[in-house]
Amino acid sequence: MREMLDEKGRTLARFLAEYDIDKYRRPSCAVDMAVFTDEQEPSVLLIRRRNHPYIGRWALPGGFVGFDETLEHAAARELEEETGVTDAELHPFGVFDAVDRDPRTRVISTGFYAVLPRERLCFRAGDDAADAALFCVTSVRELAHSAAASILGITLVGPALIECRARVLYGARGEKVVPLAKPGEGGLAADHDCILLSALRALNN
Predict the structure, then answer these.
(1) What is the 3-state secondary structure (H, E, C) of the chain?
(2) Strand 129-145 with 43-49, pairing
(3) Which of 24, 104, 146, 175 is deepest in the core (most CB within 10 A)?
(4) pLDDT, tens digit, for every residue of 117-165?
(5) What is the pTM of this model?
(6) pLDDT for res 126
(7) Domains and CATH numbers, the chain
(8) How far apart are CA 31 and CA 39, in angstroms?
């Protein structure tokens, strides 16, 4: 079968040889992981950031996806590098793409959650994490409600007391969790208030 040519008369091999990979700006891909204990009142594993951006802030473990790995592989690798946790069954639950979510560059993140018995959750801080700790999710409460949206709050108790908030939008195609504060102005680093609440709702469902 004769190979098809493009409008410039090029074969696929020639097209790829001439293709300029830098012609278009490309967003970076990242992963963020919410790891919970399997208790009636679960705890979530957080790390304290060692470096900029959001240095010193508590956050979900996460990092950038390499060119040679899938999202799930990147999530498992980053989780092990930052917390030492391995063999967690990771489930994707959402994509977080606010344009200003990371001050370094355009970063689109995929969220994963996992549930582990507390006795299996042996962790330590590593890589970009200055510390790692379990925070008990003491309450998830509704702060405001309308037919179109709700504002929900989460209280986390651990080495620090952290208050998180996010907005849930209701539409014909279901609900969507969106940040309530600008990146870094919530209880957790970046938009992790939103990601954590999304993970909790996915876990409950």
Answers:
(1) CCCCCCCCCCCHHHHHHHCCCCCCCCCEEEEEEEEEECCCCCEEEEEEECCCCCCCCEECCEEECCCCCCHHHHHHHHHHHHHCCCCCCCEEEEEECCCCCCCCCCEEEEEEEEEECHHHCCCCCCCCEEEEEEEEEEEEEEEEECCCEEEEEEEEECCCEEEEEEEEEEECCEEEEEECCCCCCCCCCCCHHHHHHHHHHHHHC
(2) antiparallel
(3) 175
(4) 998 888 888 777 889 999 999 888 888 888 899 999 999 999 999 999 9
(5) 0.91
(6) 77
(7) 25-204 (3.90.79.10)
(8) 25
Residue 92 · residue 182 · CB < 8 Å: no
Residue whose pair of structure tokens reads 């498992």 in the numeric block = 76
- Low-confidence residues of the chain, pLDDT below 50? none
